[in-house]
Amino acid sequence: MSVVESSKLSVFRKNKKILSDVSLSINEGQLIALIGHNGAGKSTLIKTILGLIKAKSGSIRVLGKEPGTMRELVGYLPEHVTFYETSTVLDNLKYFADLKGVSLEKVKEMISILGLSKIENQKVSLCSKGQRQKLGLAQALLTKPKLLLLDEPTVGLDPMASDFMYKTLVALKVHGCTSIVCTHELQLIESFMDKALVLNHGQIKAFGSLDELSKHFDLPVFISSSSITPVISKEIGVHDGHNGTIECSYSHLDETLEILRRKYLITDLKVKMPSLMNAFKASLGEDAGVGEVHE
Ligand SMILES: Nc1ncnc2c1ncn2[C@@H]1O[C@H](COP(=O)(O)OP(=O)(O)OP(=O)(O)O)[C@@H](O)[C@H]1O
Ligand SMILES: [Mg+2]
User: Fold this and answer.
1) Which of 4, 90, 143, 153 is most deeply buried (CB count within 10 A of its CB)?
2) Which helix (H) or strand (E) holds 161?
3) Ligand 2 centre from 41 Cα, in Å?
C-alpha cells in the first residue's frame, strides 16, 4: 500500500508558490531521504503530509486518508522539539503519552527501547542534544506509527548518536514503518536510505534509490587497480588512468569491468560507485549550486 500518494500537489504560503506539481508515491516500510537546498520546500512538504498546511491544488492521501486524520498512525519529530525543561525525561514522555492516549506501560517500553532508562528521572534541561533527540524520537514513536516524519533529526548529533537514530529507523521498517527524513547530511543518510526525493524550488527533481538515480543520470563510476595504466584507459576508451584510476559511466560499468578482467587480466579491481551527492548534483542539472536567494 502507498503510505503517501500525491498528484500535482501545489502549496502556497503568503501568495508564494512553495510546492509545485508534486506527484509522488511512497511505499510501506521504506526510509526516504528528503533532500534539497535551504528553502526548497522540504519542511513544507512534511507539514503538508501532517495536515498542518493545506494544499491549494492537486491531491494528497496519507495512509489512504486526508492528511491530519490519522494522527495516531503518523509520528513527527520536528526540527525543534519543545519539552518541559524542569520536568524529567519520564514526566515529559508521560505528558505526550496522555495527550495521545498511550499507557504508562508503552512509555516505559519506549524508554527502554531508546536506551533512556538511566536518565528517566533526569531533568530535560540537563540532557545532552543526543538525549533530547532520543526523547523526541520516543514521543514520535509512542503510538507505534506507520509513518514517521523527521525534520533534520541528526543536526548537532555526534556520529554514534546519528548512527543510533538511523539504525532505529531501519529497524522500524520490519514493522512496516515508513520514515521520511529531511536532511542536508547526504553522506550520512546514503547508506541507510531506500530512496532519495530531491526537491528544488518546490519541484521534484528526482525520486529513486541510489542505483536507480545512478542509472537514470548515468553517473560516473571510478575503477581502480595498480595495474591500470593510461595506455589501457586509452585503449578501452575511458577517461584517463591517473594513479591507476579510470572513470566510466554507470551504463558502461559491467562492460568495462569485463574488458579489464578478460583482456587485461586485472583482478584486483576496486569500484567506487556514485554517491548521493553525485546523484543530487546531477538531478539539479543547470540549477546545481543555486539555492535560496538570500536577501
Ligand atoms: N510560515 C511561512 N510563511 C511564508 N513563507 C514561508 C513560511 N515558512 C516557510 N516559508 C517559505 O517557504 C519556502 C520553503 O521553506 P521550507 O521551510 O519548506 O524549506 P526547507 O527546504 O525546509 O529549507 P531548510 O533546508 O532551510 O529547512 C521558503 O522560501 C520559505 O521562506
Ligand atoms: Mg526545513
Assistant:
1) 153
2) helix 159-173
3) 7
Residue that has been written with the C-alpha cell 496522555 in this structure: 98
**262 phi and psi, to 5 degrees?**
-75, -50
Q: Are the CB atoms for 78 and 151 separated by under 8 Å?
A: yes
Ordered structural domains, the chain, with CATH: 2-80+145-213 (3.40.50.300), 220-273 (no CATH)
The cell for 223 is 575503477
Query: Which residue from 10, 16, 17, 204 has its CB within 8 A of the most atoms of ligand 1, so it is best to mutate?
Result: 16
Q: Which ligand is nearest to the CA of 41?
A: 1
What does the pLDDT look like over 108-165, one tens digit per residue? Answer: 999 999 999 999 999 999 999 999 999 999 999 999 999 999 999 999 999 999 999 9
The answer to whether the predicted template modeling score (pTM) of the entire model surpasses 0.85 is yes
Which of the ligands is closest to the CA of residue 295? 1
- Ligand 1 pocket, residue 13 CB under 6 Å: yes
